[in-house]
């Protein structure tokens, strides 16, 4: 397989909703250590709302519309910092994909790169700040390095994101509520990097299924 | 978890239903999306004052909606920023033609959501300005953090700007006044116990019987330092000294001194703190021109207190004394 089709993209979003739901407690536990402990609950509420919306809307033949409805729903249901960051990310994906029927592996990496830039613009985070960026940036790099096969590329991205999320533990948080802890943020994985790892794991599952 | 609730999912909705029933004379509540608004909004010729933030800090912000203070408040889920659609709808409901001023506590999520709302309101042709509060001296203000948190000063900001807006001050001057207040106030807080977010069901951090957390925020996040519990006088010194030296407050300054309870601390203890804070202020040659003692910006049932000081000139004191008629703050009206 070499393209992300609207049907696969839809399955990606629904699979993300399931993974977030299953891991909500874990995400909240990670957040409780260095933030306010609600990342899992907020993400779960948002993606459940997205799933409900998509299930009630059979039109999955348009990548742009699919990502836009995902973004708008996350924006109005997640709250916190994750709402604008994930919502803005998917809105940006929607803009990139308007009038595109499907994405090959390189297109997908380009689109995700643009989404990453949106996250960095809103969150003002750099790599190494212990945020979502630390999982998403290496995932996209791994996707590009893995070549043209979308199954291989998305699996490489998912593995890279997982490893990178784990590797946020020794970092000092410089953005978000975790930054208030200073040195005490060291030793804990970033919850946002972990939800990004779930997002990419869901992408690999969707294309590999 | 032991709480006086029906179910964790309905905490905010049911609180808003109660707030509306109790204060129908002054405000009404929108449930889709959630916002609390002055009953007589939009008030003609007056800039609309809009604030909001995560729930769990009551009476902030919904309890400060009414003549002389906020026009609308957007509550998020407990300790979670509200979403842009809430501020967008609330902003439209209070806009009378003279624009909207947003009062935003400096948290990453709040700032991003209010920024998005401001973008959406401007697309509707509504003039929007925002004022931040970032008064918590417990947080280092550097390029390497999200900046200081907005805490107790937010209450004073809402009162003072509310009075100025009520007197007809235009949007650009309100923004400038807000920035001046932001630059003139500092706070610091501490906790004796953590708090439990209803949908999480367990305390956000652990504190032993003989420990306290100094430099806490208002979201159950841990503070900067964990220490053995000591006396109210010593704790008050620990809060007052960084507040005074950070601005710094100088001999001869007039101040508004605000001793705030975090939700689970009784007034009897807050007055013990105020007593010492007043003594320390006097020692530094500060004149406490006005004061506020009580639980106005809370962190659910957390026990603890925060101290806020604002340097105030006569113009600010006049705004402080102006009539206010909200569920949680009322005088002269």
Question: Which terms summarize this structure?
Answer:
A: mainly alpha, Serine Threonine Protein Phosphatase 5, Tetratricopeptide repeat, two-stranded antiparallel sheet, 2 strands, 68% helix, 2% strand, globular, B: 333 residues, alpha/beta, Rossmann fold, Hypothetical Protein Tm841, Chain: A,domain 3, 2 domains, 6-stranded mixed beta sheet, 24% strand
Describe, in plain words, how this protein is organized in 3D:
The complex is a heterodimer of chains A (209) and B (333). Chain A has 209 residues and is mostly helical. Chain A has a single domain, classed as DhaL domain (Serine Threonine Protein Phosphatase 5, Tetratricopeptide repeat, Alpha Horseshoe), CATH 1.25.40.340. Helices cover 68% and strands 2% of the residues of chain A. Chain A has helices spanning 6-22, 24-34, 39-55, 63-77, 82-97, 105-123, 133-145, 150-166, 191-208; strands spanning 3-4, 103-104. In chain A, strands 1-2 form a two-stranded antiparallel sheet. In chain A, α7 packs antiparallel against α8 (150-166). Chain A is globular, with a radius of gyration of 16 Å. With 333 residues, chain B is of the alpha/beta class. Chain B folds into two domains: 12-184, Dihydroxyacetone kinase, domain 1 (Rossmann fold, 3-Layer(aba) Sandwich); 185-320, Dihydroxyacetone kinase, domain 2 (Hypothetical Protein Tm841, Chain: A,domain 3, 2-Layer Sandwich). Helices cover 32% and strands 24% of the residues of chain B. Chain B is built from eight helices and 14 strands. Chain B has helices at 11-22, 84-94, 108-123, 153-166, 171-184, 232-246, 267-283, 314-321; strands at 27-31, 34-38, 48-55, 72-78, 100-105, 128-133, 185-191, 211-214, 225-228, 254-261, 287-294, 304-311, 324-325, 330-331. Chain B has a six-stranded mixed beta sheet with strand order 1-2-4-3-5-6, with helices on both faces. In chain B, β1 (27-31) and β2 (34-38) form a beta hairpin. The radius of gyration of chain B is 19 Å and the shape is globular. In chain B, 58% of the residues are buried. The model of chain B has no long low-confidence stretch (mean pLDDT 95). The interface between A and B is medium-sized, with 33 and 37 residues.
């Amino acid at each position: 397989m070499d393209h992300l089709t609207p049907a696969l993209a839809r399955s990606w979003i629904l699979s993300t909703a399931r993974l977030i739901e299953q891991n909500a407690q874990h995400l909240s536990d990670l957040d409780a250590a260095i933030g306010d402990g609600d990342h899992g609950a907020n993400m779960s509420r948002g993606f459940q709302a997205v799933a409900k919306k998509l299930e009630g809307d059979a039109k999955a033949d348009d990548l742009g519309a699919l990502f836009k409805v995902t973004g708008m729903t996350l924006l109005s249901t997640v709250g916190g910092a994750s709402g604008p960051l994930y919502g803005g990310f998917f809105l940006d994906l929607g803009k990139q994909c308007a009038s595109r029927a499907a994405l090959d592996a390189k297109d997908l990496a380009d689109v995700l790169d643009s989404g990453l830039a949106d996250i960095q613009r809103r969150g003002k985070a750099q790599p190494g700040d212990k945020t979502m960026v630390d999982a998403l940036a290496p995932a996209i790099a791994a996707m590009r390095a893995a070549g043209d096969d979308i199954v291989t590329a998305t699996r490489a991205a998912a593995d890279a994101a997982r490893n990178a999320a784990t590797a946020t533990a020794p970092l000092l948080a410089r953005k978000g509520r975790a930054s208030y802890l200073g040195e005490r943020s060291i030793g804990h994985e970033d919850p946002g990097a972990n939800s990004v790892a779930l997002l990419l794991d869901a992408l690999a599952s969707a294309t590999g299924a | 978890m032991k709480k006086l609730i029906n179910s964790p999912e309905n905490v905010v909705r049911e609180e808003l239903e109660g707030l509306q029933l109790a204060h129908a004379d002054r405000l009404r509540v929108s449930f889709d999306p959630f916002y609390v608004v002055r009953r007589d909004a939009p008030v003609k010729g007056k800039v609309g004052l809009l604030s909001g933030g995560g729930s769990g800090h009551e009476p902030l912000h919904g309890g400060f909606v009414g003549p002389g203070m906020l026009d609308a408040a957007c509550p998020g889920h407990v300790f979670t920023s509200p979403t842009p659609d809430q501020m967008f709808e609330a902003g439209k409901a209070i806009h009378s033609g003279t624009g909207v001023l947003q009062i935003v506590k400096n948290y990453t999520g709040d700032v991003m959501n209010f920024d998005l709302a401001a973008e959406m309101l401007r697309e509707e042709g509504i003039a929007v300005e925002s004022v931040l509060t970032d008064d918590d001296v417990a947080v280092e203000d550097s390029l390497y953090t999200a900046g200081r948190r907005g805490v107790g000063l937010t209450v004073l900001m809402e009162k003072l700007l509310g009075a100025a807006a009520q007197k007809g001050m235009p949007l650009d001057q309100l923004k400038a006044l807000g920035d001046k207040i932001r630059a003139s106030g500092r706070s610091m807080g501490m906790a004796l116990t953590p708090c439990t977010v209803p949908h999480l069901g367990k305390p956000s951090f652990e504190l032993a019987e003989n420990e306290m957390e100094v430099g806490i925020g208002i979201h159950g996040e841990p503070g900067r330092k964990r220490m053995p519990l000591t006396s109210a006088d010593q704790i008050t010194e620990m809060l007052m000294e960084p507040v005074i030296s950070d601005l710094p407050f100088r001999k001869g300054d007039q101040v508004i001194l605000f001793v705030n309870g975090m939700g689970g601390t009784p007034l009897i203890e807050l007055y013990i703190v105020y007593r010492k804070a007043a003594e320390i202020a006097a020692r530094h040659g500060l004149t406490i021109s006005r004061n506020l003692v009580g639980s106005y910006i809370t962190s659910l049932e957390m026990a603890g207190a925060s101290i806020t000081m604002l340097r105030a000139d006569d113009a600010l004191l006049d705004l402080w004394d102006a009539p206010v008629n909200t569920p949680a703050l009322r005088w002269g009206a």
